[in-house]
Write a structure and sequence with these properties.
Elements: H1 3-21, E1 34-35, E2 45-47, H2 49-57, H3 61-68, E3 79-84, E4 88-93, H4 95-108, E5 122-126, H5 138-156, E6 160-167, H6 172-188, H7 203-216, H8 225-250, E7 257-260, H9 261-266, H10 269-279, E8 283-286, E9 289-292, E10 303-306, H11 314-328, E11 333-339, H12 346-355, E12 363-368, E13 371-375, E14 378-380, H13 392-399, H14 401-409, E15 417-420, H15 421-427, H16 432-452, H17 468-477, H18 480-490, H19 495-513, H20 524-547
Parallel strand pairs: 5-6, 5-11, 6-7, 11-12, 13-15
Antiparallel strand pairs: 1-2, 2-4, 3-4, 8-9, 9-10, 13-14
Helix pairs in contact: 2-3, 4-20, 6-7, 6-8, 10-11, 13-14, 16-19, 16-20, 17-19, 17-20, 19-20
The chain binds one RNA strand of 75 nucleotides through helix 2, strand 9, strand 10, strand 15 and helix 16.
Length: 556
RNA sequence: GCCCCUGUAGCUCAGAGGAUAGAGCACCGGCCUCCGAAGCCGGUGGCGGCGGUUCGAGUCCGCCCAGGGGUACCA
């Protein structure tokens, strides 16, 4: 159990005991929140329960705190507790315990930061899912990095996580893509062919057309147009997906499942979903179309599922898709990461999930606000159709995958961010990401030197780690499991880069003050202890970097 | 109009109702005869506005101002 939870237990028990003894008036005891004080003077953990109880108990919070204190069976080897005005109880961990945690971290190794999970959930994180009508651009990168980071964190928190990409291969946009490709293909063969209205004008389409022409000659040109568009379209779709997959892999984003929208129709699941909605009383026929009666569930308006042309909307597909997630594949929890331009879709999808008989609370949609691009003074508008894409690939080539991930991971999804392309490139030479990686490389270098000198620190005595900077470093290292828990609960990966910075700072500060590999014989024992600490620090730093999907360099 | 997100340092952003609001970049000043100076130490500088709830508000509520997104038988 994490120490903070143990503390919550202790305080709760003390409060209940105080009530039993009449030292506190009876009444409900609120859930105890354990905080990490900013000021080190206030200890390692703090509880403000006395302040919260003061009003109901009609007592001075300091008095409450003082009465609670002796009732807490504080583990004497781990903690001591003190009362602080205006009514906090501050907990300090003992130096001895702190020192022993170095061994603990080393013992856990790469698993350090993993949480024991009594009730592991089957969780799906679906993200990116851009239409395969063009390459992934910078705007999607944010959701991509967010999703993969979140998945790593949930896995560390002990859940069974699956990362999924939903391929919208059945919609009207794909038709436009296919016809655009056909036109570019014919043009590559030197024929006159008009691009369709609202066609995809990007250079990559020209490239795809040329590729097809080179590989297949005029084979498709000799077919009837409808057939050619379909056959060529299949190829184009495959090609586009391969490009998308490769581009995402370049920023360390991978998926466990690539799910085809089309399969929902081929396997009859679309029909089953609609039938379920009908049975549950949420379908209505009106004006020649089929509607989802979302107003029955408190929505502002109903939504069309099947157009009067007989064509299903993407919303209908999405309902079938979510039926599949919950009722066919049985995910306990589904997390979708969408761009802000889909924000209006959230509540009706949740309503639809409810209409399928699934608790909508099992679906979480994280909206990542749009990334606005800026280059110099100019705002860049990324649009696939207009063709002025700034692709993810271009970005990764310029800034590098690690900086890219760190940058996107640092921001909370709900704040819109301005991505200054010039700045991103410029910062890549002087970026916080290198600060963290530098700490890791520095550690690697220290350990290399120690090995060269034939030092064996496996028997190092951690009780010699008494320096202020050593204690501060250990304290920081011990926060990772708590952080993983918080991030998994709140679905907020963006705390990780900041923590990694703090951890690196603690290490650099320690390094500045404490000589690790020393030639002096009388400092030998301390050296060995410090080498243990340094190695443990590397474990934590490496885990941070791996959770963020970044490399942990041995040298830079 | 209605709905969602956001206004925190010059810039980019963190801040589960707690104690003296933080970091990176930028700027100013110190620190390498010694394990990596891609580092360390110090300094300048800030919660859009007005009310309210609370022992306590950057955080919660209301109004105002500002920016972004959504509001289709588009995706």
């Amino acid at each position: 159990m994490l120490l903070k939870h143990r503390i919550a237990q202790l305080v709760t028990q003390a409060a209940q005991e105080a009530q039993r003894q009449g030292a506190l008036p009876p009444g409900p005891v609120p859930e105890v929140e354990v905080e990490r004080p900013q000021n080190p003077e206030h200890g390692d953990f703090a509880v403000s329960l006395p302040l919260k109880l003061a009003r109901a108990a009609r007592m001075n919070p300091m008095t409450i705190a003082q009465r609670l204190l002796p009732l807490m069976p504080v583990e004497e080897f781990i903690l001591e507790a003190r009362v602080w005005p205006p009514g906090f109880i501050n907990f300090h961990v003992k130096q001895r315990w702190l020192q022993e945690q170095v061994e603990e971290v080393l013992g856990q190794g790469q698993r350090y930061g993993d949480l024991p999970q009594a009730q592991p959930l089957k969780v799906q994180v679906e993200f990116v899912s851009v239409n395969p009508t063009g390459p992934v651009h910078v705007g999607h990168a944010r959701g991509a990095v967010l999703g993969s980071g979140l998945a790593s964190i949930l896995a560390a928190a002990g859940h069974h996580v699956s990362k999924e990409y939903y391929i919208n291969d059945a919609g009207t946009q794909m038709g436009v893509f296919y016809r655009s490709l056909y036109a570019r293909y014919l043009q590559a063969l030197g024929r006159e062919a008009p691009m369709p209205e609202n066609g995809y004008m990007g250079d990559y389409m020209v490239e795809l057309g040329r590729e097809a022409a080179q590989e297949h000659g005029d084979r498709f040109a000799r077919m009837p147009e409808v057939e050619a568009v379909a056959a060529l379209g299949r190829l184009g779709l495959e090609r586009m997906l391969a490009i998308i997959r490769a581009d995402l892999e370049a920023v360390g984003v991978t998926f466990d499942v690539w799910f085809n929208e089309g399969s929902l129709y081929e396997t009859g699941q679309y029909g089953e979903a609609m039938e379920l909605l009908r049975r549950n009383g949420y379908l209505a026929q009106r004006e020649g179309a089929t509607w989802f009666s979302s107003t029955l569930l408190g929505e502002d308006k109903d939504n069309v599922l099947v157009r009067s042309t007989g064509e299903p909307t993407y919303f209908a597909s999405d309902i079938a898709y979510h039926r599949n997630k919950f009722l066919v594949r049985g995910y306990d929890r589904v997390i979708n990461i969408w761009g802000a331009d889909h924000q209006g879709h959230v509540s009706r999808l949740k309503a639809a999930v409810g209409a399928l008989g699934v608790d909508p609370g099992r679906l979480t949609v994280i909206i990542s606000q749009l990334v606005t691009l800026k280059q110099g003074e100019e705002a860049v508008r990324a649009s696939k159709r207009k063709g002025n894409i700034v692709t993810l690939r271009e970005l990764v080539e310029e800034v590098g995958p690690d900086a890219c991930r760190f940058f996107f991971l640092s921001r909370s999804p709900e704040s819109q961010m301005e991505f200054d392309l010039d700045l991103a490139v410029q910062q890549s030479a002087d970026n916080p990401v290198y600060y963290v990686q530098y700490a890791h490389a520095r550690i690697a270098s220290i350990l290399r030197l120690a090995r060269e000198r034939g030092l064996d620190w496996s028997a190092g005595d951690v009780s010699l780690l008494t320096h202020e900077a050593e204690a501060a470093l250990i304290r920081r290292m011990l926060q990772l499991p708590e952080l993983v828990e918080t991030m998994a609960q709140r679905l907020e990966p963006h705390h990780l880069p900041r923590y990694a910075m703090d951890l690196a700072t603690a290490f650099h500060w320690f390094y500045q003050q404490c000589r690790v590999v020393s030639g002096e014989p009388e400092e030998r024992a301390v050296s060995l202890a410090r080498l243990k600490l340094v190695e443990a620090c590397r474990v934590v730093l490496a885990r941070c970097l791996s959770l963020m999907g970044m490399s942990a360099p041995e040298r830079m």
